[in-house]
Amino acid sequence: MKLNTGLWQGQSMKLNMTQQLTQAIELLQYSSQELNAYLESKALENPLLQLESVPFEERNRSRESSGMSIDWIEEVAVTQSTLWEHLNSQLDLKTLTNEDRNILSLLFDSLDDNGYLPSNVESIFEVDDLSRYIEMIHGLEPAGIGARNLKECLLLQIGRDIEAPKNVRSIIEHHFVDFCEKTWKTIAVELGVSLADIQAAADYVKTLNPRPGAGFAVETPHYIRPEMVVTRNRDGLDIALLHGNVMKVLYNKGYDSLISASEDEEGMKFLREKRQEFQWILRMLDQRRTTLLKVGRCLVERQEDFFRHGPKKLKPLTLREVAETIGVHESTISRAVRGKYIGTPFGTCEMKALFVSGVGKDEESASSQGIKAEIMSLVNKEDKQKPLSDQAIAVKLKEQGMSVSRRTVAKYRDQLNIPSSTRRKRYE
Protein backbone atom coordinates (compact mmCIF):
# COMPACT_ATOMS: atom_id res chain seq x y z
CA MET A 1 0.00 0.00 0.00
CA LYS A 2 1.38 3.41 -1.03
CA LEU A 3 0.76 6.56 0.98
CA ASN A 4 1.02 9.80 -0.98
CA THR A 5 1.31 13.24 0.56
CA GLY A 6 0.13 16.41 -1.13
CA LEU A 7 -2.38 19.27 -1.21
CA TRP A 8 -5.86 18.87 -2.69
CA GLN A 9 -8.82 21.22 -3.00
CA GLY A 10 -12.24 20.11 -1.83
CA GLN A 11 -15.69 21.54 -1.03
CA SER A 12 -17.82 20.76 1.99
CA MET A 13 -20.80 22.29 3.79
CA LYS A 14 -20.96 22.80 7.54
CA LEU A 15 -22.88 24.94 9.98
CA ASN A 16 -20.81 27.76 11.43
CA MET A 17 -22.03 28.54 14.96
CA THR A 18 -21.68 32.29 15.11
CA GLN A 19 -22.10 34.16 18.38
CA GLN A 20 -25.49 35.49 17.27
CA LEU A 21 -26.72 32.00 16.35
CA THR A 22 -25.59 30.67 19.72
CA GLN A 23 -27.41 33.50 21.50
CA ALA A 24 -30.54 32.91 19.41
CA ILE A 25 -30.58 29.26 20.55
CA GLU A 26 -30.11 30.33 24.18
CA LEU A 27 -32.89 32.90 23.86
CA LEU A 28 -35.36 30.24 22.71
CA GLN A 29 -34.70 27.91 25.62
CA TYR A 30 -34.92 30.64 28.27
CA SER A 31 -38.01 30.74 30.48
CA SER A 32 -39.61 34.13 31.14
CA GLN A 33 -37.58 34.65 34.33
CA GLU A 34 -34.32 33.64 32.62
CA LEU A 35 -35.11 35.84 29.64
CA ASN A 36 -35.68 38.85 31.91
CA ALA A 37 -32.32 38.24 33.59
CA TYR A 38 -30.64 38.03 30.15
CA LEU A 39 -32.24 41.30 29.02
CA GLU A 40 -31.14 43.03 32.22
CA SER A 41 -27.54 41.97 31.60
CA LYS A 42 -27.75 43.26 28.01
CA ALA A 43 -29.19 46.59 29.19
CA LEU A 44 -26.08 47.11 31.33
CA GLU A 45 -23.87 46.67 28.25
CA ASN A 46 -26.01 48.51 25.69
CA PRO A 47 -26.95 52.17 26.39
CA LEU A 48 -29.50 52.10 23.55
CA LEU A 49 -31.49 49.33 25.18
CA GLN A 50 -34.02 50.33 27.82
CA LEU A 51 -36.18 47.94 29.83
CA GLU A 52 -39.56 48.69 31.29
CA SER A 53 -41.35 46.39 33.70
CA VAL A 54 -44.89 45.56 32.68
CA PRO A 55 -47.26 47.31 35.13
CA PHE A 56 -49.14 45.03 37.52
CA GLU A 57 -52.51 46.17 36.13
CA GLU A 58 -51.45 45.43 32.55
CA ARG A 59 -50.12 42.02 33.58
CA ASN A 60 -53.45 41.25 35.19
CA ARG A 61 -55.36 42.36 32.11
CA SER A 62 -53.18 40.05 30.00
CA ARG A 63 -53.93 37.11 32.30
CA GLU A 64 -57.63 37.87 32.66
CA SER A 65 -58.06 38.17 28.89
CA SER A 66 -56.52 34.69 28.65
CA GLY A 67 -58.97 33.26 31.18
CA MET A 68 -56.57 33.00 34.14
CA SER A 69 -57.91 33.84 37.57
CA ILE A 70 -56.03 36.57 39.45
CA ASP A 71 -55.33 36.62 43.17
CA TRP A 72 -53.11 39.47 44.36
CA ILE A 73 -52.34 37.64 47.60
CA GLU A 74 -50.21 35.19 45.57
CA GLU A 75 -47.77 38.03 44.90
CA VAL A 76 -47.08 38.53 48.62
CA ALA A 77 -44.11 36.73 50.15
CA VAL A 78 -44.67 34.62 53.26
CA THR A 79 -42.48 35.09 56.34
CA GLN A 80 -41.78 31.77 58.03
CA SER A 81 -39.85 31.01 61.20
CA THR A 82 -37.31 28.20 61.27
CA LEU A 83 -37.64 25.12 63.46
CA TRP A 84 -34.74 26.35 65.62
CA GLU A 85 -36.48 29.70 66.21
CA HIS A 86 -39.79 27.99 66.95
CA LEU A 87 -38.28 25.68 69.55
CA ASN A 88 -36.18 28.42 71.17
CA SER A 89 -39.22 30.66 71.54
CA GLN A 90 -40.83 27.95 73.68
CA LEU A 91 -37.84 27.94 76.04
CA ASP A 92 -38.67 31.54 77.03
CA LEU A 93 -41.64 30.17 78.96
CA LYS A 94 -39.47 27.83 81.03
CA THR A 95 -37.15 28.45 83.98
CA LEU A 96 -33.77 27.25 82.75
CA THR A 97 -30.14 27.93 83.54
CA ASN A 98 -27.75 29.26 80.92
CA GLU A 99 -26.13 25.82 80.75
CA ASP A 100 -29.52 24.20 80.08
CA ARG A 101 -30.23 26.65 77.28
CA ASN A 102 -26.82 26.09 75.71
CA ILE A 103 -27.20 22.30 75.73
CA LEU A 104 -30.73 22.47 74.35
CA SER A 105 -29.57 24.87 71.65
CA LEU A 106 -26.88 22.38 70.59
CA LEU A 107 -29.47 19.60 70.46
CA PHE A 108 -31.74 21.83 68.35
CA ASP A 109 -28.87 22.29 65.92
CA SER A 110 -28.52 18.53 65.54
CA LEU A 111 -32.15 18.04 64.45
CA ASP A 112 -32.52 17.05 60.81
CA ASP A 113 -35.04 18.56 58.40
CA ASN A 114 -37.73 16.15 59.61
CA GLY A 115 -37.23 17.10 63.26
CA TYR A 116 -35.38 13.92 64.29
CA LEU A 117 -32.36 13.66 66.57
CA PRO A 118 -29.52 11.39 65.40
CA SER A 119 -30.08 7.77 66.45
CA ASN A 120 -26.62 7.80 68.09
CA VAL A 121 -27.16 11.12 69.89
CA GLU A 122 -25.87 9.65 73.17
CA SER A 123 -22.46 8.98 71.64
CA ILE A 124 -22.29 12.42 69.98
CA PHE A 125 -23.00 14.54 73.07
CA GLU A 126 -21.05 13.79 76.24
CA VAL A 127 -23.51 15.52 78.55
CA ASP A 128 -24.51 14.49 82.04
CA ASP A 129 -28.20 13.57 82.29
CA LEU A 130 -28.66 13.83 78.49
CA SER A 131 -31.93 11.87 78.68
CA ARG A 132 -33.47 14.71 80.74
CA TYR A 133 -32.74 17.23 77.98
CA ILE A 134 -34.12 14.89 75.32
CA GLU A 135 -37.32 14.52 77.37
CA MET A 136 -37.57 18.31 77.53
CA ILE A 137 -37.42 18.46 73.73
CA HIS A 138 -40.06 15.75 73.51
CA GLY A 139 -42.35 18.01 75.51
CA LEU A 140 -42.13 20.86 72.99
CA GLU A 141 -44.32 21.56 69.98
CA PRO A 142 -44.86 20.11 67.45
CA ALA A 143 -45.58 16.72 68.95
CA GLY A 144 -43.03 14.10 67.96
CA ILE A 145 -40.12 16.53 67.73
CA GLY A 146 -36.75 15.16 68.87
CA ALA A 147 -37.58 11.51 68.15
CA ARG A 148 -34.72 9.25 67.16
CA ASN A 149 -36.74 7.04 64.82
CA LEU A 150 -40.23 6.77 63.31
CA LYS A 151 -41.50 4.43 66.01
CA GLU A 152 -40.56 6.87 68.79
CA CYS A 153 -42.03 9.78 66.81
CA LEU A 154 -45.43 8.04 66.56
CA LEU A 155 -45.39 7.00 70.23
CA LEU A 156 -44.69 10.60 71.32
CA GLN A 157 -47.73 11.81 69.39
CA ILE A 158 -49.93 8.98 70.63
CA GLY A 159 -48.91 9.72 74.23
CA ARG A 160 -50.25 13.27 73.97
CA ASP A 161 -53.60 12.32 72.45
CA ILE A 162 -56.16 11.26 75.06
CA GLU A 163 -58.54 10.24 72.26
CA ALA A 164 -56.13 7.77 70.65
CA PRO A 165 -57.60 4.28 70.03
CA LYS A 166 -57.28 1.88 72.91
CA ASN A 167 -54.74 -0.57 71.47
CA VAL A 168 -52.75 1.69 69.17
CA ARG A 169 -49.91 2.34 71.63
CA SER A 170 -49.44 -1.36 72.35
CA ILE A 171 -49.50 -2.16 68.63
CA ILE A 172 -46.84 0.42 67.74
CA GLU A 173 -44.66 -0.30 70.78
CA HIS A 174 -44.62 -4.11 70.61
CA HIS A 175 -45.67 -5.05 67.06
CA PHE A 176 -44.33 -2.21 64.94
CA VAL A 177 -42.72 -4.34 62.19
CA ASP A 178 -45.73 -6.66 61.80
CA PHE A 179 -48.00 -3.61 61.77
CA CYS A 180 -46.01 -1.94 58.97
CA GLU A 181 -45.84 -5.15 56.92
CA LYS A 182 -49.59 -5.62 57.46
CA THR A 183 -49.27 -9.11 58.93
CA TRP A 184 -52.14 -8.22 61.20
CA LYS A 185 -53.46 -11.69 61.96
CA THR A 186 -50.43 -12.36 64.16
CA ILE A 187 -51.07 -9.12 66.07
CA ALA A 188 -54.78 -9.91 66.43
CA VAL A 189 -54.03 -13.32 67.97
CA GLU A 190 -51.38 -12.01 70.41
CA LEU A 191 -53.44 -9.01 71.60
CA GLY A 192 -56.81 -10.74 71.44
CA VAL A 193 -58.36 -8.04 69.23
CA SER A 194 -60.19 -8.11 65.91
CA LEU A 195 -58.77 -7.12 62.53
CA ALA A 196 -61.29 -4.27 62.52
CA ASP A 197 -59.67 -2.90 65.71
CA ILE A 198 -56.26 -2.98 64.05
CA GLN A 199 -57.74 -1.30 60.96
CA ALA A 200 -59.05 1.51 63.20
CA ALA A 201 -55.56 1.86 64.69
CA ALA A 202 -54.06 2.02 61.19
CA ASP A 203 -56.52 4.74 60.16
CA TYR A 204 -55.55 6.72 63.25
CA VAL A 205 -51.79 6.32 62.63
CA LYS A 206 -52.29 7.79 59.14
CA THR A 207 -53.45 11.02 60.80
CA LEU A 208 -50.14 11.38 62.68
CA ASN A 209 -47.20 13.36 61.29
CA PRO A 210 -44.11 11.22 60.59
CA ARG A 211 -42.07 14.38 59.81
CA PRO A 212 -42.92 16.94 62.51
CA GLY A 213 -40.09 19.30 61.55
CA ALA A 214 -40.73 19.33 57.81
CA GLY A 215 -43.27 22.14 58.07
CA PHE A 216 -40.52 24.53 59.19
CA ALA A 217 -38.13 23.82 56.33
CA VAL A 218 -37.19 27.13 54.72
CA GLU A 219 -36.86 26.81 50.97
CA THR A 220 -36.42 29.44 48.30
CA PRO A 221 -39.85 29.76 46.68
CA HIS A 222 -39.99 28.72 43.04
CA TYR A 223 -42.53 30.80 41.18
CA ILE A 224 -44.07 29.33 38.06
CA ARG A 225 -45.33 31.62 35.32
CA PRO A 226 -46.87 29.93 32.29
CA GLU A 227 -45.63 31.12 28.92
CA MET A 228 -49.05 30.61 27.35
CA VAL A 229 -52.54 29.60 28.34
CA VAL A 230 -55.19 27.44 26.68
CA THR A 231 -58.88 28.25 27.17
CA ARG A 232 -62.07 26.60 25.97
CA ASN A 233 -64.82 28.44 24.10
CA ARG A 234 -67.85 27.57 22.02
CA ASP A 235 -65.86 27.21 18.81
CA GLY A 236 -63.02 25.15 20.25
CA LEU A 237 -59.75 25.90 22.00
CA ASP A 238 -57.80 29.16 22.09
CA ILE A 239 -54.12 29.58 22.92
CA ALA A 240 -52.43 32.86 23.74
CA LEU A 241 -49.00 33.96 24.90
CA LEU A 242 -48.81 35.85 28.20
CA HIS A 243 -46.77 38.84 27.04
CA GLY A 244 -46.78 40.46 30.47
CA ASN A 245 -44.22 37.98 31.78
CA VAL A 246 -41.35 39.50 29.77
CA MET A 247 -40.15 43.08 30.27
CA LYS A 248 -40.71 45.60 27.49
CA VAL A 249 -37.66 46.36 25.34
CA LEU A 250 -37.48 50.06 24.33
CA TYR A 251 -35.06 52.09 22.23
CA ASN A 252 -33.26 54.99 23.93
CA LYS A 253 -33.86 57.78 21.39
CA GLY A 254 -31.67 60.21 23.31
CA TYR A 255 -28.60 58.80 21.57
CA ASP A 256 -29.87 59.45 18.01
CA SER A 257 -28.82 63.09 18.02
CA LEU A 258 -25.48 62.13 19.60
CA ILE A 259 -24.80 59.59 16.87
CA SER A 260 -25.55 62.08 14.07
CA ALA A 261 -23.62 65.01 15.62
CA SER A 262 -20.60 63.22 17.04
CA GLU A 263 -17.23 63.40 15.28
CA ASP A 264 -15.70 60.67 17.40
CA GLU A 265 -15.31 57.74 15.00
CA GLU A 266 -14.73 55.19 17.76
CA GLY A 267 -17.76 56.39 19.69
CA MET A 268 -19.95 56.38 16.59
CA LYS A 269 -18.75 52.86 15.69
CA PHE A 270 -19.62 51.65 19.21
CA LEU A 271 -23.13 53.14 19.08
CA ARG A 272 -23.79 51.75 15.60
CA GLU A 273 -22.83 48.28 16.82
CA LYS A 274 -25.10 48.63 19.81
CA ARG A 275 -27.97 49.75 17.57
CA GLN A 276 -27.50 46.65 15.43
CA GLU A 277 -27.45 44.54 18.59
CA PHE A 278 -30.69 46.19 19.74
CA GLN A 279 -32.39 45.41 16.42
CA TRP A 280 -31.10 41.84 16.56
CA ILE A 281 -32.53 41.34 20.07
CA LEU A 282 -35.94 42.58 18.87
CA ARG A 283 -35.86 40.12 15.96
CA MET A 284 -34.86 37.23 18.21
CA LEU A 285 -37.61 38.06 20.73
CA ASP A 286 -40.15 38.12 17.92
CA GLN A 287 -38.81 34.83 16.56
CA ARG A 288 -39.00 33.31 20.05
CA ARG A 289 -42.65 34.35 20.41
CA THR A 290 -43.48 32.99 16.94
CA THR A 291 -41.80 29.63 17.61
CA LEU A 292 -43.47 29.22 21.01
CA LEU A 293 -46.87 30.01 19.54
CA LYS A 294 -46.36 27.50 16.71
CA VAL A 295 -45.36 24.81 19.20
CA GLY A 296 -48.32 25.69 21.45
CA ARG A 297 -50.81 25.51 18.58
CA CYS A 298 -49.41 22.16 17.49
CA LEU A 299 -49.72 20.81 21.04
CA VAL A 300 -53.33 22.00 21.24
CA GLU A 301 -54.08 20.29 17.93
CA ARG A 302 -52.36 17.01 18.83
CA GLN A 303 -53.53 16.89 22.45
CA GLU A 304 -57.01 18.35 21.99
CA ASP A 305 -58.66 15.59 24.04
CA PHE A 306 -56.31 16.35 26.95
CA PHE A 307 -57.23 20.06 26.99
CA ARG A 308 -60.93 19.17 26.80
CA HIS A 309 -61.21 16.16 29.10
CA GLY A 310 -58.09 16.02 31.28
CA PRO A 311 -54.97 13.87 31.82
CA LYS A 312 -56.72 10.57 31.06
CA LYS A 313 -56.98 11.59 27.42
CA LEU A 314 -53.30 12.38 26.94
CA LYS A 315 -52.08 10.76 23.72
CA PRO A 316 -48.60 9.51 22.80
CA LEU A 317 -46.60 12.34 21.26
CA THR A 318 -42.92 12.77 20.40
CA LEU A 319 -40.70 15.77 19.76
CA ARG A 320 -40.11 14.56 16.21
CA GLU A 321 -43.83 14.59 15.38
CA VAL A 322 -44.19 18.20 16.47
CA ALA A 323 -40.94 19.18 14.72
CA GLU A 324 -42.11 17.67 11.42
CA THR A 325 -45.48 19.41 11.73
CA ILE A 326 -44.06 22.93 12.09
CA GLY A 327 -40.99 22.32 9.93
CA VAL A 328 -38.08 22.64 12.38
CA HIS A 329 -35.48 20.34 13.93
CA GLU A 330 -36.60 18.37 16.99
CA SER A 331 -33.78 19.97 19.03
CA THR A 332 -35.59 23.28 18.46
CA ILE A 333 -38.74 21.80 20.00
CA SER A 334 -36.71 20.47 22.92
CA ARG A 335 -35.30 23.94 23.60
CA ALA A 336 -38.68 25.61 23.11
CA VAL A 337 -40.38 23.52 25.84
CA ARG A 338 -37.44 23.41 28.26
CA GLY A 339 -38.43 24.78 31.68
CA LYS A 340 -41.65 26.28 30.35
CA TYR A 341 -45.22 25.86 31.54
CA ILE A 342 -48.62 26.10 29.92
CA GLY A 343 -51.89 27.05 31.59
CA THR A 344 -54.74 24.59 30.92
CA PRO A 345 -58.37 24.29 32.06
CA PHE A 346 -57.06 21.67 34.52
CA GLY A 347 -54.21 23.74 35.98
CA THR A 348 -50.68 24.68 35.02
CA CYS A 349 -48.39 21.92 33.74
CA GLU A 350 -44.96 21.59 32.17
CA MET A 351 -44.98 21.73 28.39
CA LYS A 352 -42.67 18.73 28.23
CA ALA A 353 -45.29 16.72 30.17
CA LEU A 354 -47.43 16.78 27.01
CA PHE A 355 -44.81 14.60 25.29
CA VAL A 356 -45.43 11.06 26.52
CA SER A 357 -44.50 7.59 25.39
CA GLY A 358 -47.12 5.19 24.12
CA VAL A 359 -47.99 1.63 25.12
CA GLY A 360 -48.67 -0.41 22.00
CA LYS A 361 -47.61 -0.19 18.37
CA ASP A 362 -50.79 0.95 16.63
CA GLU A 363 -51.88 4.51 16.06
CA GLU A 364 -54.54 4.26 18.77
CA SER A 365 -52.11 3.14 21.45
CA ALA A 366 -52.70 4.68 24.85
CA SER A 367 -50.19 6.96 26.49
CA SER A 368 -48.40 5.89 29.64
CA GLN A 369 -49.80 8.92 31.46
CA GLY A 370 -53.35 8.05 30.41
CA ILE A 371 -52.93 4.48 31.63
CA LYS A 372 -51.53 5.69 34.96
CA ALA A 373 -54.49 8.05 35.38
CA GLU A 374 -56.90 5.18 34.68
CA ILE A 375 -55.08 2.88 37.14
CA MET A 376 -55.38 5.56 39.79
CA SER A 377 -59.08 5.95 39.03
CA LEU A 378 -59.71 2.19 39.26
CA VAL A 379 -57.89 1.95 42.59
CA ASN A 380 -59.83 4.90 44.02
CA LYS A 381 -63.16 3.31 43.03
CA GLU A 382 -62.37 -0.28 44.05
CA ASP A 383 -63.95 -2.15 46.95
CA LYS A 384 -61.32 -1.69 49.68
CA GLN A 385 -62.33 -4.99 51.30
CA LYS A 386 -61.65 -6.76 47.98
CA PRO A 387 -58.99 -4.63 46.23
CA LEU A 388 -58.14 -5.26 42.60
CA SER A 389 -55.07 -7.33 41.83
CA ASP A 390 -52.66 -6.24 39.10
CA GLN A 391 -54.14 -8.89 36.78
CA ALA A 392 -57.68 -7.65 37.48
CA ILE A 393 -56.62 -4.08 36.69
CA ALA A 394 -55.02 -5.26 33.43
CA VAL A 395 -58.30 -6.97 32.46
CA LYS A 396 -60.35 -3.83 33.18
CA LEU A 397 -57.91 -1.70 31.19
CA LYS A 398 -58.22 -4.09 28.25
CA GLU A 399 -62.00 -3.70 28.38
CA GLN A 400 -61.44 0.03 27.90
CA GLY A 401 -59.19 -0.52 24.88
CA MET A 402 -55.87 -0.31 26.75
CA SER A 403 -53.94 -3.52 26.16
CA VAL A 404 -51.48 -3.62 29.06
CA SER A 405 -49.73 -6.60 30.65
CA ARG A 406 -49.89 -7.39 34.35
CA ARG A 407 -46.17 -6.62 34.65
CA THR A 408 -46.70 -3.15 33.15
CA VAL A 409 -49.57 -2.50 35.56
CA ALA A 410 -47.31 -3.46 38.48
CA LYS A 411 -44.57 -1.11 37.20
CA TYR A 412 -46.95 1.84 36.80
CA ARG A 413 -48.55 1.12 40.19
CA ASP A 414 -45.13 1.32 41.84
CA GLN A 415 -44.41 4.60 40.05
CA LEU A 416 -47.69 5.98 41.40
CA ASN A 417 -46.74 4.85 44.95
CA ILE A 418 -49.83 2.64 45.14
CA PRO A 419 -49.38 -0.36 47.47
CA SER A 420 -50.13 -3.91 46.34
CA SER A 421 -53.67 -5.29 46.69
CA THR A 422 -52.66 -7.07 49.90
CA ARG A 423 -51.55 -3.81 51.53
CA ARG A 424 -54.60 -1.91 50.24
CA LYS A 425 -57.08 -4.32 51.81
CA ARG A 426 -59.19 -2.93 54.63
CA TYR A 427 -60.76 -4.85 57.51
CA GLU A 428 -64.02 -3.29 58.64
Automatic annotation (TrEMBL):
Q: Name one GO biological process term.
A: DNA-templated transcription initiation
- Keywords noted in UniProt: DNA-binding, DNA-directed RNA polymerase, Nucleotidyltransferase, Sigma factor, Transcription, Transcription regulation, Transferase
Question: Residues in domain RNA polymerase sigma factor 54 core-binding?
Answer: 73-255
Q: Does the keyword Cytoplasm apply?
A: no
Domain spans labelled RNA polymerase sigma factor 54 DNA-binding: 269-426
Chain segments annotated as transmembrane: none
Q: Which InterPro entries match?
A: RNA_pol_sigma_54, RNA_pol_sigma_54_core-bd, RNA_pol_sigma_54_DNA-bd, RpoN_core-bd_sf
Q: What's an example of a GO molecular-function annotation for this chain?
A: sigma factor activity
Spell out the GO cellular component terms annotated for this protein, sorted alphabetically and separated by semicolons. DNA-directed RNA polymerase complex
Keyword Nucleus on entry? no
Q: Which domain of life is it from?
A: Bacteria
Give the family per the record.
Belongs to the sigma-54 factor family.
Entry protein name: RNA polymerase factor sigma-54
Gene designation = rpoN
